[in-house]
Amino acid sequence: MRADGHEILTAxxxxxxxxxxxxxxxxxxxxxxxxADMSGMDVCRRIKNDETIKHIPVILLSAASNxxxxxxxxxxxxxxxxxxxxxxxxxxxxxxxxxxxxxxx
Length: 105
Hints:
By secondary structure, the protein is α/β, with parallel strands linked by helices.
């Protein structure tokens, strides 16, 4: 995404991710489900419950992939769930779709 001119912000905890999202209002958020202080699912839920940032699409990533995890990701309002390992091109395509830069494939 940097090659396309997008700025990438990085957070290592759920709390710092929430602060960055609230402050910068990014076009999209990618979250690993396994964060140090709270789950990415919780962060997504908090984003979607905040009127000022709930419009921001959230893509959840995890090595733990099964129907329950995917269902939970949708339940908390995630735009998409991507299982690791993933193809970088697929991740970029999902991110571009989430940001409205291209039609979904």
